[in-house]
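Translate structure to sequence.
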């Protein structure tokens, strides 16, 4: 069995993992970065989800390195794509002109930019990337992780053991928490534990947000109908009790009001991409599902370059509600069923979806597996909204963020802030039968205490596995916050190595904390918000 050593092992190559690795590498440390899928970037790439970001993202509210990622994506389009001169001149270029984000784009472009950001460190030998590998075991001495064992995704007998002074869990589901025996929580905490007004009376550890398997489509001449999925009849008849119709329909609850609404679907509308207003303060953008998460707007490119827009399907009807995929014996069955649901949605769109011209079905919809990189035409990985969450020194609760509770005071401010974030507390329907929980949120800070386990000394969460609750995870789970969490965790590990100290000591010692926070600010991490109001 191969054994590899470095200053730090970052297990999981999503946005948090990449940011953690970059922070460690900038500090001069050696890093092993692992990822079980073919692309680095997690929810932005292998899960195929365009970035969900705060309304002020172009001005403030993200780290300098996350801003470099965003600008790198725009620069890649300007350098390599046949943009129109009008699109090329747009300072805040939105290649897809999607309504969900000011930067909707094809996943592969983000992969290229992430690889470019890591390339100098690969060349110098200070970074080693292991793909596709997943964690399968760990050795622990008391409160310290001594090694992590990985297996190749496709050849389980091909295994590697990692040794590192610090181990960062940047997996999408907090895989290292059970493997190392770290204390953690899943699902919905009870109101008696958290005091949250939206929490249930009793804890529901298997009640988690739906996972979704995204896919991309365009709309071109011809019949591109896929084979009828084996479980299509099941999903065609499936009707959640709160949905207001069958899951496979244009009708569903409005996330913010829960009133039943009907969405529209117009492939390739002749809209002007530069007039799209991607601002979730005023418009969630989901009225027309085609433009909601569009990732390539054909009118941003020279005539004929794109025969069609490309739309990313991360829509309500692909949310999988039949069971969780964490800490259950049949997780693989549920993940396979989630993929079947997405294929069934596509087949319904192609064959039976009501058209607004009175017809049925859009057979000219074409699955674009080349865009998402999945072997079955879907995204490589499921979109994981909710992870295992470490029992941390600090737990962020609903009453720390909610506009309804905090009012004009804004979110709680932490003396140990290591960054900022902003998104509504946005929980999708859950495996426990809950409807949307969507709560207006104040711009918030990320407390260092939420990144430090109560007991483990050299294991740091670096993704969606920090000290939040089921509810507040709904705000902390999005792209720029995950990146900031990973960057802060990587910088903390590097700082502790430099100072021969521990994360717990940094948290407890005012001088060490101030020095660490100064390093973060020096590297472009914003610890506070200016005077802005939540939504």
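Result:
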């Amino acid at each position: 069995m191969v054994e590899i050593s470095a200053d730090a092992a970052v297990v999981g190559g999503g946005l948090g993992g990449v940011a953690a690795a970059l922070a460690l590498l900038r500090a001069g440390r050696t890093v092993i970065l692992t990822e079980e899928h073919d692309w680095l970037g997690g929810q932005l790439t292998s899960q195929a989800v365009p970035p969900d970001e705060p309304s002020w993202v172009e001005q403030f509210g993200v780290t300098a390195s996350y801003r470099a990622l965003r600008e790198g994506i725009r620069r890649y389009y300007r350098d390599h794509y046949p943009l129109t001169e009008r699109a090329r001149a747009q300072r805040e270029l939105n290649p897809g002109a999607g309504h969900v984000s000011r930067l909707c784009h094809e996943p592969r472009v983000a992969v290229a930019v992430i690889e470019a950001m890591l390339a100098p460190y690969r060349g110098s030998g200070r970074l080693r990337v292991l793909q596709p590998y997943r964690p399968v075991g760990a050795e622990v001495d008391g409160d310290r992780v001594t090694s992590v064992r990985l297996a190749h995704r496709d050849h389980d007998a091909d295994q590697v053991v990692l040794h590192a002074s610090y181990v960062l869990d940047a997996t999408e589901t907090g895989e290292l928490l059970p493997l190392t025996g770290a204390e953690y929580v899943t699902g919905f905490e009870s109101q008696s534990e958290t005091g949250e007004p939206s929490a249930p009376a009793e804890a529901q550890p298997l009640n988690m947000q739906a996972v979704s398997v995204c896919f991309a489509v365009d709309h071109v001449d011809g019949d591109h109908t896929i084979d009828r999925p084996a479980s299509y009849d099941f999903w065609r008849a499936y009707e959640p009790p709160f949905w207001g119709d069958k899951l496979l329909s244009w009708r569903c609850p409005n996330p913010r009001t829960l009133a039943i609404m009907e969405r529209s679907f117009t492939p390739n509308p002749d809209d002007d991409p530069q007039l799209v207003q991607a601002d979730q303060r005023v418009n969630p953008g989901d009225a027309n599902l085609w433009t909601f998460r569009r990732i390539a707007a054909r009118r941003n490119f020279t005539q004929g370059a794109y025969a069609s827009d490309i739309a990313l399907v991360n829509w309500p009807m692909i949310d999988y509600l039949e069971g969780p995929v964490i800490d259950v014996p049949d997780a693989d069955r549920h993940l396979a069923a989630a993929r079947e649901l997405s294929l069934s949605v596509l087949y319904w769109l192609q064959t039976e979806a009501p058209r607004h011209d009175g017809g049925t079905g859009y057979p000219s919809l074409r699955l674009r597996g080349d865009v998402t990189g999945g072997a079955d035409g879907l995204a490589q990985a499921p979109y994981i909204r909710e992870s295992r969450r470490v029992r941390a020194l600090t737990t962020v609760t609903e009453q720390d963020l909610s506009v309804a509770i905090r009012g004009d005071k804004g979110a709680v401010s932490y003396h140990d802030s290591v960054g900022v974030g902003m998104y509504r507390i946005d929980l999708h329907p859950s495996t426990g039968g809950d409807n949307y929980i969507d709560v207006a949120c104040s711009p918030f800070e990320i407390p260092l205490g939420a990144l430090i386990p109560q007991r483990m000394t050299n294991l740091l969460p670096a993704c969606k596995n920090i000290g939040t609750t089921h509810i507040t995870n709904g705000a902390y789970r999005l792209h720029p916050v995950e990146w900031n969490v990973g960057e802060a965790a990587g910088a903390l590990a590097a700082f502790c190595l430099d100072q021969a100290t521990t994360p717990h000591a940094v948290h407890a010692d005012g001088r060490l904390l101030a020095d660490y926070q100064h390093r973060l600010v020096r590297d472009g991490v914003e610890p506070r918000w200016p005077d802005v109001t939540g939504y």
